[in-house]
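User: I would dearly like some help making sense of a protein record. This is the protein in question:
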Amino acid sequence: MLRIIALSLLVLPVIGCVSHSTALVHPETEEVRWCEASGWGAIGAPHATRIYSRCVNQLKEQGYVVDHAASANPSADIPPPPEGLVWNERLAISSFKAGRISEAQYRRIRTAVAERYQSTVRHARERLRNGEISEDEYDAIKRQAELDYEG
């Protein structure tokens, strides 16, 4: 029993992990920016927290404020896209200008579209690092994600 406790005290500090993600919006331009960081272990977790905090503080210095609704649920209050389409930047802009969605919905759609892009590229980058895909495959995935983002 004493061995299990001793082993736990040695291993637990090494396997801890953190993951932070927050949306910030500029009140004048309504541009949404995300601060994200994740890490594990005795070195990675604190490092991720420092990176995340630095990102949030830098954006706040530039006038951004935390968008609690987007951070809590980026897909909240997002209407379905027109039939047969998927939300992207171009469709969101045209729908907003045509009055089919509100300004808040437009911001949330942009946030969700950006998050989808970032997630796709982040996942592909991880697969590239792990040797699961080639550099050319990564580039193709990233190009397609950019096209999907822009519309």
